[in-house]
Design goal:
about 375 residues, alpha/beta, Nucleotidyltransferase, domain 5, DNA polymerase, domain 1, 3 domains, six-stranded mixed sheet, 17 helices, about 50% helix
Length: about 375
């Protein structure tokens, strides 16, 4: 495949690129995006690499990058990314689902490298290449991009294919390729483009032990905030901060004065949305005064001792396998086991054999 221009801004050039990419058995893939000021991530750049070259595709100059759906969605070619999940979410509205994903971060963790190792560090360790860091926090939505920015962006895909080959060699030697297949499978399953507003409350913290009426209020407020954030394409925290949302649920203010008295409550929220918020509060039928908030339970020494025992066992197994312990099991897994639950991740697949059975036996 001949290397096209390194910066694609015209539909004809994109069409030619897609036709050429269809011939490649493996593609390196990365994105640059902005989401600080919007609900939906703004796709600013798509970088694609192959063994003999790399190119940046400009979604801002092009009306659509939908033609990329064919080569990127094809199951016949492997798409190699690092820490893939965010890139897959950002690409989903623009080109649809990406087929046959290989995540170099996931693969690296199974070789014994840190579980969340960055692309630059992985490239340094495995390929002895030092990548530039000058444009890590660049605003990729601004045009024109400098030559240095384009080179920086292209570096994000230039080394992904060699990294994949090196990682596959190591995992083959360790007899862990089946582990990798299992870890990568979820990345090729269908993803949702956005959060279901009616489930948005599940993202909130600090709701454990609340009474049913307050939980109903939490569902209403979270759904309202999510829908408004989607409609206005603004971060949900700009609509209503998590801390403020939680305080409304705890305090259950009954009028504008009580609403305005909540710490960190913005005056504009009360002025423009106060009536809507109060309407949802009244509709939740929380008793007045509301039930007492759940008391924070003291740590159970036996529970903590069991969690520590499971953690120590996992660290021991991880040392034997030369893996980071969190690759095998997390504290949440230990807490579930200590409560008598059985995490699915430890009862099926390679983890069931390597660590799950030993943790269950230790109970």
């Amino acid at each position: 495949m001949q290397s096209p221009t390194r910066f694609v801004t015209h539909p004809a050039a994109l069409s030619d690129l897609c036709a050429a990419l269809a011939e490649q058995p493996a593609l390196a893939l990365d994105t640059e995006f902005m989401r600080e000021r919007t609900y939906r991530a703004e796709l600013c750049l798509v970088q694609i690499g192959w063994p003999s070259g790399a190119v940046c595709v400009d979604p801002i100059a092009l009306e659509s990058v939908a033609p990329l759906a064919a080569p990127l969605g094809a199951a016949t070619s492997v798409k190699v990314l690092h820490a893939a999940r965010q890139d897959l979410e950002v690409l989903l509205p623009a080109v649809g689902a990406i087929g046959s994903v290989f995540d170099t971060q996931v693969a690296a963790a199974l070789t014994g490298l840190p579980a969340q190792i960055g692309y630059g560090e992985l490239t340094r360790r495995l390929l002895e290449v030092e990548l530039a860091k000058a444009h890590t926090r660049a605003d990729w939505s601004k045009r024109p991009l400098s030559d240095e920015q384009i080179e920086y962006a292209l570096d994000d895909v230039r080394y992904l294919l060699p990294l994949r080959e090196r990682l596959l060699e190591t995992l083959d030697r360790l007899n862990r390729l089946a582990w990798l297949d299992e870890e990568l499978a979820p990345l090729s399953r269908p993803m949702q483009a956005s959060v279901d507003p009616d489930r948005a409350w599940q993202r909130l913290k600090g709701l454990q032990g609340l009474d049913d009426a307050r939980l109903a209020l939490a569902r209403s407020l979270a759904a309202w905030r999510e829908r408004r954030a989607i409609d206005r394409n603004r971060p949900r925290g700009w609509i209503l901060d998590d801390l403020v949302l939680r305080e409304i649920i705890y305090r259950v203010p009954r009028d504008r004065a009580a609403l305005a008295a909540i710490p960190e409550m913005q005056e504009g929220v009360v002025r423009h949305s106060g009536d809507e918020l109060l309407s949802m509060i009244h509709a939740a039928n929380v008793p007045d005064p509301p039930p007492p908030l759940p008391r924070r339970e003291k740590p159970d020494p036996e529970f903590n001792a069991l969690v520590k025992k499971l953690s120590t066992l996992t660290q021991s197994v991880a040392t034997e396998l030369e893996l980071a312990p969190e690759v095998l099991a997390t504290r949440r897994d230990f807490e579930q086991l200590a409560r008598g639950e059985k995490p699915e991740s430890l009862t099926r697949g390679w983890r069931a054999e390597v660590i799950g059975a030993r943790l269950l036996a230790a109970l």
